[in-house]
Design a protein that fits this description.
By secondary structure, the chain is mostly helical. The chain has 3 domains: 192 residues, no CATH class; 99 residues, GAF domain (Beta-Lactamase, 2-Layer Sandwich), CATH 3.30.450.40; 72 residues, Winged helix-like DNA-binding domain superfamily/Winged helix DNA-binding domain (Arc Repressor Mutant, subunit A, Orthogonal Bundle), CATH 1.10.10. The chain has 18 helices and 4 strands. A 4-stranded antiparallel sheet has the order 2-1-4-3. The longest helix is centred in the middle third of the chain and has 32 residues. InterPro entries: Sig_transdc_resp-reg_C-effctor, Tscrpt_reg_LuxR_C, WH-like_DNA-bd_sf. One of its GO terms (molecular function) is DNA binding. This is Regulatory protein, luxR family.
C-alpha cells in the first residue's frame, strides 16, 4: 500500500516565515535606529505575526496568507534600507541590499490593497472586483519592474547608495515613472476606504463588527498622524501608529470566527425546537460559520433530497445518492434506515477547528432531521399531514379552501411574516420541494384531501 508524500506539521510554514521576518527586522535594527524607516520594521512584524496567527486559527485562510506575504515584503524593504542607509556605499552587498529595500514598494502597497479589498474573509466582495484586482496586479508589476531596473525611486525612499547594475535612469523612464508610480500609489490607497465602504453596505452582523474594528484602528492611526503633523511637523508618529491597524484587523478576523462558531452552535437554543423551518435555520447557521453556502439533506443512501438551504435558491438541487455528495459532507444515520447530510459548498481544505465545528453541526443536523416528521421520500409525492402543528394544519385547511396567503392572513388576523413561514413549513414537512414542473400548493392540498378521506371511515363508524 502506497502513501502520499508526508505532510508538514501544522503551522510549520507560517512559523518559518515569521522566523525569517524576525531575523530580517532584528538584523536591520542592529544597524541603528532610522526613524524614517522604523515603521517598515514594525509593520513587518505586525503583518507577519498577525498573518501567522490567522493561519494557525484557520488553515489556508486567504486573508492570513495576504497578511503574512505583506509582512515578508515589509521585512525585506526594512532590512535593505537599514543596511543601505548605514553601510559602505562602495560595497557590492550593500548596494544589493539597498536595491532590495526599494523596488518592492509597489508590491507591498498592492498586497495591502488586496488584503483590504478581501477583508475580512479573504474573498472579493463580488466578481465585479476581478478587473480591479487585474489592474492592481498590472500597476504593481509595471512599477516594480521599472524600480527594479533603474534607481527611479531611490530619492523618494531616502536611499543614496548607487544602483547595483544600472546608472541614472533615461529621461523616458523617469517620465514614465513620474506619470505612473506615485499617482498609482495614491489611487491604490484611496481604494482602501472605498472597498471598506462598499463591503460595509452589503455586510451584516459579524462582518460589520470586524469592519468596525478595522475602521476604529485606522481612525486612531489617522488621528495620531494628524497630531504628529500639527504638533511636530512630522508624519513619523502616524506611520508608527499604523502598526495598530493589521494587529486589530487580525484579531477581528479571529474573533469573528469564534463568534460565528458560537452562533452556529447555539442557533437552536435561540430558535427553539418549535421553529417553523429548522433545516433552513441550521443551513443558515452553518453557512455563517463556514463562510460558504450550506444545505441540509434527508432521505436514503440511494436518494437524498435537500430540505434546507442557505442562501436561498430559486429551485432545489436534484436528488443525489449519498456517495455523490461533495467531499467534506457529513452523513448522519437516522431511524427507519433514513440518512441525513450536512453539506458545505466550499473549495479548499478545512482547518482542524472547522472540522470539529462541522462535526458538531452534523450532530445537530441529526437532531433536527429526527425532529421532522417527514413522510416517505418518493419523487414529489406529498407525505402525511399528521406531523403538522395546529397552526400549520389550520393554514393547510384554508389553502384547501382556495385561499391565497394574503386571504389566510386576513382570515386568521395574522401578518404575512407569520403565514408565509407556516406555508413554507407545510411544504417542507410534506416533502414538497420547488420543482419547475410541479405546483407545491396543489400537491399540499391533495395531501390534505387524502388525509381527510382516510379519516372519513373512522368518523362514519363513530
Amino acid at each position: 500500500m502506497t502513501s502520499g508524500p508526508p505532510r508538514l506539521p501544522r503551522g510549520l510554514v507560517p512559523l518559518l516565515v515569521v522566523s525569517v521576518v524576525v531575523l530580517l527586522v532584528t538584523w536591520g535594527l542592529a544597524q541603528g535606529v532610522w526613524l524614517t524607516n522604523l515603521h517598515n520594521g514594525l509593520l513587518a512584524l505586525a503583518f507577519a505575526l498577525v498573518g501567522a496567527y490567522v493561519l494557525h486559527q484557520r488553515r489556508h485562510h486567504p486573508e492570513g496568507v495576504l497578511l503574512l506575504a505583506t509582512g515578508v515584503v515589509q521585512a525585506v524593504m526594512f532590512w535593505g534600507r537599514q543596511v543601505g542607509h548605514t553601510g559602505d556605499p562602495t560595497s557590492v552587498p550593500v548596494r544589493w541590499a539597498a536595491w532590495l529595500g526599494v523596488w518592492p514598494i509597489a508590491l507591498g502597497i498592492a498586497l495591502v490593497t488586496l488584503a483590504v479589498v478581501a477583508y475580512p474573509d479573504g474573498r472579493l466582495p463580488s466578481p465585479r472586483w476581478r478587473p480591479v484586482v487585474a489592474v492592481i496586479a498590472v500597476l504593481a508589476t509595471t512599477c516594480s519592474t521599472l524600480s527594479l531596473l533603474w534607481p527611479v525611486e531611490y530619492d523618494a525612499a531616502g536611499v543614496s547608495v548607487p544602483h547595483p547594475f544600472a546608472g541614472p535612469a533615461p529621461d523616458a523612464v523617469v517620465a514614465a515613472w513620474s506619470a505612473l508610480a506615485h499617482p498609482s500609489y495614491l489611487v491604490l490607497q484611496l481604494l482602501w476606504p472605498a472597498a471598506i465602504w462598499l463591503r460595509w453596505r452589503s455586510a451584516t452582523g459579524g462582518v460589520r463588527r470586524q469592519l468596525a474594528w478595522l475602521l476604529l484602528a485606522a481612525a486612531a492611526a489617522v488621528l495620531v498622524l494628524v497630531v504628529g503633523l500639527v504638533g511636530w511637523r512630522t508624519p513619523t508618529p502616524g506611520l508608527l501608529a499604523a502598526t495598530l491597524v493589521p494587529v486589530v484587523a487580525g484579531l477581528a478576523v479571529v474573533h469573528g470566527q469564534h463568534a460565528a462558531a458560537y452562533a452556529a452552535l447555539t442557533w437552536m437554543s435561540r430558535r427553539g425546537p418549535a421553529a417553523d423551518d429548522l433545516p433552513t435555520d441550521l443551513a443558515h447557521a452553518t453557512s455563517g460559520a463556514m463562510g460558504a453556502p450550506a444545505s441540509v439533506w434527508l432521505g436514503t443512501a440511494e436518494r437524498l433530497q435537500v430540505v434546507g438551504t442557505w442562501p436561498a435558491v430559486d429551485a432545489d438541487p436534484s436528488p443525489v445518492a449519498a456517495a455523490d455528495l461533495p467531499v467534506g459532507s457529513r452523513l448522519v444515520a437516522l431511524s427507519d434506515d433514513r440518512v441525513g447530510a450536512l453539506v458545505v459548498d466550499r473549495d479548499g481544505p478545512l482547518s482542524l477547528a472547522e472540522v470539529r465545528l462541522l462535526d458538531d453541526l452534523a450532530a445537530q443536523a441529526a437532531l433536527v432531521l429526527e425532529h421532522l416528521t417527514l413522510g416517505e421520500l418518493v419523487g414529489c409525492r406529498p407525505g402525511p399531514v399528521v406531523g403538522l402543528t395546529p397552526r400549520e394544519q389550520e393554514v393547510l385547511e384554508l389553502m384547501a379552501d382556495g385561499l391565497s396567503n394574503a386571504a389566510i392572513c386576513e382570515r386568521l388576523h395574522l401578518s404575512i411574516k407569520t403565514v408565509e413561514p407556516a406555508v413554507g413549513s407545510v411544504f417542507a414537512k410534506l416533502q414538497l420541494h420547488q420543482q419547475p414542473d410541479t405546483n407545491r400548493r396543489v400537491l399540499a392540498v391533495l395531501a390534505y384531501l387524502r388525509s381527510v378521506e382516510g379519516l372519513a371511515p373512522a368518523r362514519r363508524e363513530e
